[in-house]
Design a protein that fits this description.
Length: 262
């Protein structure tokens, strides 16, 4: 990412990698369905932006079956793990996705999931990434629109996370922003929909517990929230990982953009 872009909020250490594995397992089915319904079949080149450990890269390879996948991330440690666990026709590249040109472009498919929530000026990035598509290509985006829970611990965690991201110029529910933006000239919005995924409270709490441990020492968080409150939140999230009932519902905004032919 560029110097003006904040570091990845959830970090890229071993705990973050463990969390990404859980995220990959949790959202694999809904992402596979989106790709099945919205991606071009057997394209020449697909780019996976912010690939992390390669979970979405492998989904693209399996579901879309492109001739070639280039998976892009700024974390050397994540890319090393991704390479070690991927046998599909995927090439991993260390690159800042806010910098053009993107490796291998123009591409027939560009995909990102849970990436724009960590990047400033998401509307501008949509415009710029679409410029990296081949004629007839498609940019597919899957981002949070809402996360709903009736549990007070979950909701308090989400409040703090939303404030943290806001302090960095990014947005937890970036799907809402993308849904309301005016499409730039020479870009067609070909898909705009939401899909809901209920996740067991215990699994959501495990992801959130690991997140909190990763960013609780952030300067904004340390200044805005007491260590006592953060300790209590950590304890309560840990307790929820053993809960056998309840769900946390993610509403995901699914968007598709193509270069205009007019």
């Amino acid at each position: 990412m560029s110097p003006s872009t904040p570091d990845y909020t959830f970090r890229d250490h071993d705990l973050a990698a463990e969390r990404l594995t859980l995220v990959g397992e949790t959202f694999a089915s809904v992402t596979a369905r989106f790709l099945e319904q919205a991606a071009p079949r057997r394209p020449r080149l697909a780019l996976d932006l912010g690939c992390g450990l390669g979970h979405t890269s492998r989904l693209i390879a399996d579901v879309v079956q492109p001739h070639r996948v280039i998976a892009i991330d700024r974390s050397e440690s994540f890319l090393a793990l991704a390479k070690a666990n991927t046998e599909a026709n995927v090439t991993f590249r260390l690159h800042d996705v806010t910098k053009l040109p993107l490796p291998g472009s123009p591409a027939d498919l560009i995909f990102c999931r849970f990436l724009l929530t960590h990047l400033a000026e998401p509307q501008d990035l949509i415009h710029r990434w679409t410029s990296q598509l081949a004629t007839g290509g498609r940019l597919l985006v899957q981002e949070p629109d809402e996360i709903r829970s009736t549990n007070s611990t979950i909701n308090r965690y989400l409040e703090i996370l939303e404030a943290l991201l806001d302090s960095r110029g990014t947005h937890l529910y970036v799907g809402r922003i993308l849904a309301q933006m005016a499409d730039p000239q020479q870009i067609r919005r070909v898909i705009d929909r939401t899909t809901a995924l209920p996740v067991p409270t215990s699994r959501a709490a495990e992801m959130f517990r690991m997140n909190l441990e990763s960013w609780r020492d952030d300067g904004f968080v340390s200044a805005a929230y007491s260590s006592e409150e953060l300790d209590e939140l950590q304890v309560n999230l840990t307790a929820l990982t053993k809960q056998r009932s309840g769900t946390v519902v993610w509403t995901l905004r699914e968007l598709g953009f193509s270069p205009s032919t007019s």
